[in-house]
Design a protein that fits this description.
heterodimer, A: alpha+beta, Beta-Lactamase, Helix Hairpins, 4 domains, 44% helix, 21% strand, B: Rossmann fold, 6-stranded mixed β-sheet, 6 strands, 28% helix, histidine kinase (chain A), Sig_transdc_His_kin-like_C (chain A)
């Protein structure tokens, strides 16, 4: 045998067994040897031509490549022989050398390898199919939950949460996902409610997986929370409250999912129910408080009424004895009369207050043609009080507007309001000073009536409560209802009552009333 | 962007929700709506801190349900709070005690001192206040930097939120 080309030698080194060989000239066998039977080559005899239809005939006819080799791999040369043969040929001068190498073992290995690869592919395909199925299932599950008004977030291996299917617009808005952003929620940020709860859920899932209780579904629920989301989630213009509750489910297969429930309907029902309870509680609190105040008020009224009554009883007792001279008798009658008037005034105050409390809210006149004229009523009221001022040597001045100023209210009640303020000023005004009643237009819509005195003013500690029921400024003979009546009455007409210390000393009470023309 | 969580705490019907609505949306409704759970709203606030620099903060306002025998506050609500706004109703002095009590629970739950402010709300109804404001403010003490507010008129509302925001940034705790 001639020099074997390197390529063929390399092939031989790899150690195939059952080598057969042939030397051909002009396609006829000139020499043959080796394991001819193993390759099913018994038919190949010296002197016989090589048929053109054998699978390796191309090896034989490859002329002109003396320095190289032609190779055919894993040929089945004889159907009856279980052998795979690699055929190697090279040409040298006019001779063709052919080697037959048994590669059955290699083929078996290859087959096994192929088979394994096929199995792997199959397995991979199946896994991919299963994953696809799982995705489909997840999507279907997500869509099913969405149809029921729930959204799902699934815990991923990286500890984040993702929706298994396209999330509802409200979940997108809730999670703050912008367009094209990954739909991922990082758990644990307590500033955001959902993220904070997902942090709790991660911990809950971890405990559930490592817990001794076995594979049962367990849940952890959040509280209810409400967020202000765009009403039209697409347009994002208006906003509205949307309420949610989340439930973490530790599934029996170790997975963790969080179901988010859109709770507007049930929150509204809970709210309505709780609201009723609390409204009732607030009413009860208010009524209890009112009862307490009324008890105190009643006690104080009785106490105040007893004062004049004691004087009356004293005066009558002295008169009954008949021991008084005419001057003393006159004085006793005067005292009795004064105390009777005082008591009458107190009773009137009390009745006014109670009457005003139960008075219908819209009992006032706001017709610009017939509504009470504040200027006229202030003057008339002041006129009626002038005698009392003379007795105490206090001047009473009416200043300000002179024309008509019609205001929302009722003439008789307005007179009582002004009388209370003037009477209050008189009680505190020192002799020799003046009380001023001033009426002015404040603006196009309101008129202000001020009653100003030069008394000690209202102590700071009671200013805030001044217009409340039964707050007394420390003066004798006041039941503490006059200013309460003033405030309550004018507020029902849409007005207000105010107090401030008067510049230069004294008190300045103001009542601001709506002009009838404006209100109509 | 700096984000800070602030919890509004207090008894029911003291005006927590109204204060948030006034501060965030500049609106007020006379009607009382009880809060279920917690209601979360946000507002971007600009404040000047100690160095005079203008700083932007997103306040995440947790308007927490009023506590009473029907509803209790889960302690998890307080987690991550940078500050607390305690709210009491001037017309119901007992709500002041409740607010102070809730503040104690919240502080324990948070595990550290955080800036707190106390709001005596419903100043528009001051004529109905059982106890005068100065007396209530004295009772609260300076630690809570109490303020009188009215969600109805807006008096003191913006200032209170901004004051707390400044305290959050400067770490000013009682």
């Amino acid at each position: 045998m001639s020099q074997i080309p390197e390529a063929v030698q390399a092939r031989l080194v790899r150690g195939p067994s059952k080598l057969a060989w042939a030397i051909l000239r002009d396609r006829k066998v000139v020499e043959i040897g080796g394991a001819v039977d193993a390759h099913g080559l018994r038919w190949l005899q010296v002197g016989s031509p090589v048929p053109t239809d054998v699978p390796w005939s191309s090896v034989v006819t490859q002329d002109g490549r003396g320095d190289g080799a032609v190779e055919m791999r894993a040929l089945r040369l004889d159907p009856d022989v279980e052998a795979h043969t690699d055929v190697l040929g090279w040409h040298e001068d006019e001779v063709t050398h052919v080697l037959f190498l048994d590669t059955s073992a290699t083929v078996e290995l290859l087959d096994a390898s192929m088979q394994r690869q096929n199995t792997d592919d199959l397995l991979r395909d199946r896994l991919a199919g299963a994953e696809r199925m799982r995705r489909v299932e997840r999507r279907a599950r997500g869509e099913a939950f969405a149809a029921l008004g729930y959204e799902l977030l699934e815990e991923g291996p990286d500890g984040t949460f993702r929706p298994p299917s396209e999330p509802a617009a409200w979940l997108v808005s809730l999670c703050g996902w912008g367009a094209g952003e990954p739909r991922v929620v990082d758990p644990g940020d307590p500033i955001d409610y959902l993220s904070g709860f997902l942090g709790d859920a991660v911990e809950f899932f971890r405990k559930a997986r490592s817990g001794p209780d076995g594979p049962e579904v367990r849940t952890l629920s959040s509280g209810v929370w409400t967020e202000i989301l765009p009403e039209s989630l697409a347009a994002g213009a208006a906003k509205r409250d949307m309420s949610f509750q989340a439930h973490a489910l530790a599934l029996s297969d170790g997975r963790g999912v969080v179901v988010i429930e859109h709770k507007n309907q049930s929150v509204a029902e809970m709210q309505a129910s709780l609201q009723r309870q609390r409204d009732a509680e607030l009413s009860y609190e208010g009524l209890s408080h009112e009862m307490q105040v009324k008890d105190v008020l009643l006690h104080c009224i009785v106490h105040d009424l007893r004062g004049p009554l004691a004087s009356l009883v004293g005066a009558f007792s002295l008169l009954k004895k008949g021991t008084l001279d005419s001057a003393d008798a006159e004085e006793a009658i005067e005292i009795g009369l004064r105390q009777a008037k005082r008591q009458d005034e107190m009773i009137r105050h009390v009745l006014d207050v109670f009457a005003a409390e139960y008075e219908a809210l819209r009992q006032f006149d706001d017709d610009p043609a017939t509504a009470p004229d504040l200027v006229a009523i202030a003057r008339e009221t002041a006129q009626r009080q002038s005698a009392a001022f003379q007795v105490q040597s206090v001047d009473l001045l009416v200043t300000g507007a002179t024309g008509r100023l019609r205001v929302v209210g009722r003439a008789d009640r307005l007179e009582r309001v002004i009388a209370n303020l003037i009477g209050n000023a008189l009680r505190h005004a020192p002799a020799g000073t003046a009380v001023e009643v001033n009426v002015e237009e404040r603006d196009a819509e309101t008129v202000v009536l001020s009653v100003l005195d030069r008394g000690p003013g209202v102590p700071e500690e009671i200013r805030e409560r001044l217009f409340r029921r039964f707050v007394q400024g420390g003066s004798a003979g006041a039941a503490g209802l006059g200013l309460f009546y003033v405030r309550m009455t004018v507020e029902r007409w849409g007005g207000t009552a105010e107090y401030e210390p008067r510049e230069g000393g004294g008190a300045a009470f103001r009542v601001i009333l709506r002009r009838a023309a404006v209100s109509s | 962007m700096i984000r800070k969580k602030v919890c509004l705490l207090g008894s029911f019907a003291v005006g927590k929700t109204s204060l948030v609505r006034r501060f965030v949306h500049s609106i007020f409704s006379e009607r009382y709506h009880t809060t279920i759970g917690v209601k979360i709203d946000k507002k971007l606030v600009q404040v000047r801190v100690d160095d005079g620099q203008l700083t932007e903060v997103t306040l995440v306002l947790w308007d927490v349900q009023g506590e009473d025998r029907f509803q209790s506050i889960p302690t998890s609500y307080y987690r991550g709070s940078s500050g607390l706004l305690l709210v009491a109703d001037g017309t119901r002095p007992q709500t002041l005690d409740s607010a102070l009590q809730i503040a104690e629970t919240a502080t324990q739950s948070i595990g550290k001192d955080v800036p707190m402010r106390l709001l005596l709300n419903k100043a528009d109804l001051v004529a109905q206040w059982e106890v005068p404001a100065p007396e209530l403010l004295r009772k609260v003490g300076a630690d809570f930097a109490p303020r009188v507010t009215s969600a109805k008129t807006g008096d003191g509302v913006d200032e209170s939120f901004r004051d707390l925001t400044r305290a959050l940034l400067s770490g000013d705790v009682p």
